[in-house]
Every structure is written in structure tokens, then in C-alpha cells.
Design goal:
With 180 residues, this protein is mainly α. The chain has two domains: 77 residues, no CATH class; 64 residues, no CATH class. It contains six helices and two strands, in the order αββααααα. A two-stranded antiparallel sheet has the order 1-2. α2 runs antiparallel to α3, α3 crosses α4 and α4 packs across α5. The relative contact order is 0.11. The protein binds flavin-adenine dinucleotide. Flavin-adenine dinucleotide (FAD) binds next to α2.
């Protein structure tokens, strides 16, 4: 990236983009759903793009739909929507837990989410100097592993080597966990 940027020529002024709100729809809570229709991708859950989760979640939903269809289910919508809810839960927990740290979000995370968010930020900073932790952290961010895997005692010990710091200024100024 550094090499590329060294030779790059700016062709226009920088512009900013805004993403007003993350949206999750709970179709799994409906008692009935019209037959012949399903919802997938951003139409089901639209994430803050800064965490880079939308395509990964949409791909996982497509895989789930394939697997459910193979079982020739009696109630496709119920099986599919309950399955995707579990897929979305993981990504949503990571993204929303972080977004709610910002006062502008207008809502507060639950005590449990706040505590886990503080731990994730600590793990993020520790990952910068610990390759084992960095690998585990990236797996969670890229939805390959559940966030709970970061609570493995061996990893917790590594995370605790860096001091806790909850203010947003300590996350390198980017203000988000993913940092990309
Ligand atoms: C700035 C930004 C950066 C992102 N970065 C990442 C990333 O790094 N990693 C990641 O995993 N995800 C990322 N995402 C999220 C990702 O782009 C989306 O989650 C993903 O594209 C959702 O796919 P989709 O098929 O559900 O919707 P879309 O890709 O939005 O596709 C919907 C399609 O439907 C078409 N359409 C809409 N209305 C109609 C209509 N009435 N009739 C016919 N066609 C219609 C649209 O033109 C569009 O082509 C990013 C999103 C943004 C905005």
C-alpha cells in the first residue's frame, strides 16, 4: 500500500461519505411469512460499512440458504430466518457494541456489551504487538470465529498485558475497532 501510494496521483479533491444508520430487521420474529419470498443481504441487515461485514454476512446467508434448501424443509422461511438471525447476531454484536460507544449514537450499550466492548478494544491494542492475538482477533473481525473465542483464558492473559483504556482517543484516532 505504501509503495502504491508513493506513486499515486490524486485526480480529485477528497470527499467524505456518510452512513446514517445500521438497520436490522427481525423477520425471524414473524409468525408467518409469504411463501415464495425471502430476504437476504443488506435488505435483512445493513451494517456500518466501516467494519467490512456486509458482504461476508450476505455470503454466509447464501450458504445457509443453500444448506436449508437441500433439506427440503417443511417451513423454509422459519428455518432460514432463524438461521440467519444467528449469523447476524455475531457481526451485529461486534459492530453495534462499538458504535454505541459514541455519544452521538443516542443509545447506550447494555452493561454486558459495554464490558465486552472494552475488552475488545483492549484486545485490539494488544493485537498490534502480539501475532497470536492478532490472528485470533482478525478471525473474529472477519467472521471466521465467534467473538467468544477471544475469551479463551490463554488469550485473555495476553490481552491483559496491555492496560485498559476506554476512551476513544486510544484507538489510534480512527474511532472504530476494525481500523480499516
Ligand atoms: C462504502 C461501503 C463500503 C463497504 N465495505 C465493505 C467491506 O469492506 N466488506 C464487506 O463485507 N462489506 C462492505 N460493505 C457492505 C456491502 O457492500 C453490502 O453489505 C453488500 O453489497 C450487500 O449486498 P446486497 O446484494 O444485499 O445489496 P447491494 O449490493 O446493495 O445490491 C442491491 C442491488 O439491487 C439494486 N436495486 C435496488 N433497488 C432496485 C429496484 N427497485 N429494482 C431493481 N434493482 C434494484 C441495486 O442497484 C443494487 O445493485 C460496504 C458498503 C459500503 C456502502
Amino acid at each position: 500500500m505504501a509503495n502504491f501510494l508513493t506513486g499515486a496521483v490524486r485526480t480529485s479533491e477528497p470527499t467524505s461519505t456518510r452512513f446514517p444508520v445500521s438497520i436490522r430487521k427481525h423477520y425471524e420474529s414473524l409468525h408467518a411469512f409469504p411463501s415464495g419470498y425471502l430476504v437476504i443481504g443488506d435488505a435483512l441487515c445493513s451494517f456500518n460499512p466501516v467494519y467490512g461485514q456486509g458482504m461476508s454476512v450476505a455470503a454466509a446467508e447464501a450458504e445457509l440458504l443453500r444448506d436449508v434448501l437441500r433439506t427440503d424443509p417443511h417451513d423454509l422461511a422459519t428455518e432460514y430466518f432463524h438461521g440467519v438471525a444467528r449469523i447476524i447476531d455475531t457481526a451485529w454484536t461486534v459492530a453495534i457494541g462499538r458504535d454505541l460507544q459514541f455519544p452521538e449514537a443516542g443509545a447506550k450499550p447494555s452493561a454486558q456489551a459495554a464490558e465486552f466492548g472494552a475488552y475488545l478494544r483492549r484486545a485490539y491494542r494488544a493485537s498490534a504487538v502480539d501475532a497470536t492475538l492478532g490472528t485470533a482477533f482478525l478471525k473474529v473481525l472477519n467472521l471466521v470465529a465467534e467473538p467468544q473465542t477471544l475469551l479463551d483464558p490463554a488469550l485473555v492473559k495476553r490481552v491483559m498485558t496491555v492496560p485498559a483504556a476506554d476512551d476513544l482517543s486510544t484507538t489510534g484516532g480512527s474511532g472504530h475497532v476494525a481500523g480499516h
